UniProtKB/TrEMBL annotation:
Domain 6-phosphogluconate dehydrogenase NADP-binding: 5-162
Species of origin: Neoroseomonas eburnea
Listed name of the protein: NAD(P)-dependent oxidoreductase
Keyword Oxidoreductase: yes
Residues the record marks as active site: 171
Stretches assigned to coiled coil: none
Domain 3-hydroxyisobutyrate dehydrogenase-like NAD-binding: 165-277
GO molecular-function terms, A-Z: NAD binding; NADP binding; oxidoreductase activity
InterPro entries: 6-PGluconate_DH-like_C_sf, 6PGD_dom2, 6PGDH_NADP-bd, HIBADH-like_NADP-bd, HIBADH-related, NAD(P)-bd_dom_sf
Keyword Transferase: no
Keywords: NAD, Oxidoreductase
């Protein structure tokens, strides 16, 4: 069987290291494109063939992988593919969008004789660099079997969640749980602090009990305890995008999502106060009363 030619569009914080790992491990050619000059330059020392023209990256590609900011960008790129892509092209979207967007895109590509899979990724940029992402896939059995080896070049945990859209559903649920847990932990840290408990002591004690969690050990210890919320990490602006997708899904399912709505209100206030670009556990500063109100 001929080795498939891969195209990769979107070389940002997550896409760049994903493309680098794919190019290093895939036996065939990997072409890469991004609108940003610096993002393209960062891949020049990789095995990927980096191009400055989107037509060049698509030329002859059998599979196109996307890592883009959201549904708007994904749908815009995919809308051009019936004219610019190879017949039978398979599109694998690694971005976080919405269930409805994934299904719209799949239907549009299907009408053009092309296939689609939604395969959003979870974990950190460091995990992307190491090739240790968790990837949640919505696709037919046939498509999943075809792309599973490629996804394994970028992630250690690849889960077939079901048909088109289920990858996005699982990713949105995963993210909402993290955002909600961070907000809940921020409330408890603020309360404990006001009650005279040192935050480090609080996290140590809770980590030894049933309140321990991934969020406590990672977001709590690494960001909230030292109060380090850099701009070049997952920002509160992105949190609101994902929560909107989660609430859309909840509405379509007819299930109330009141805890998610409360978390949305917290992060919306973070953005309103001008801190939307900062790493989202900065919600602690809001809840603890340490964030200035511009009004």
């Amino acid at each position: 069987m001929a080795v498939e030619r891969i195209a990769f569009i979107g070389l940002g914080v997550m896409g760049g290291p994903m493309c680098r790992n794919l190019a290093a491990k895939h036996a065939g050619e990997v072409r890469a494109f991004d609108l940003n000059d610096a993002a393209r330059a960062a891949l020049q020392d990789s095995r990927a063939r980096v191009t400055a023209e989107i037509a060049a990256v698509l030329d002859g590609a059998d599979i196109l992988l996307l890592s883009l900011p959201g549904a708007k960008q994904v749908e815009a790129v995919c809308a051009t593919l019936p004219q610019t892509g190879k017949p039978g092209l398979l599109v694998v979207d690694l971005s976080t969008t919405t269930v409805a967007s994934a299904r719209r895109t799949a239907a549009m590509l299907d009408a053009a004789g092309m296939a689609f899979a939604d395969a959003p990724v979870a974990r950190t940029r460091e995990a992307a660099v190491r090739g240790e992402l968790s990837i949640m896939v919505g696709a037919s059995d046939e498509v999943f079997a075809r792309i599973r080896p490629l996804l394994g070049h970028m992630g250690t945990d690849v889960t077939h969640c079901g048909g088109i859209g289920t990858g996005q559903a699982v990713k949105l649920i995963n993210n909402a749980l993290v955002f909600e847990h961070v907000a809940a932990l921020a409330e408890m840290m603020a309360i404990g602090d006001r009650a005279g408990v040192d935050p480090a002591v609080l996290l140590d004690a809770v980590s030894r009990g049933s309140g321990d969690s991934f969020v406590l050990r990672n977001h709590g210890r690494k960001a909230m305890l030292p109060r380090e919320f850099p701009d070049r990490a997952f920002p509160s602006d992105y949190v609101l995008k994902d929560i909107a997708g989660m609430l859309e899904l909840a509405g379509d399912a007819g299930v109330p999502a009141r805890i998610t709505e409360t978390a949305r209100d917290y992060y919306a206030e973070v953005v309103r106060r001008g801190c939307g670009s900062r790493y989202f556990p900065v919600v602690l500063e809001l809840i603890a009363g340490r964030m200035d109100d511009p009004t």
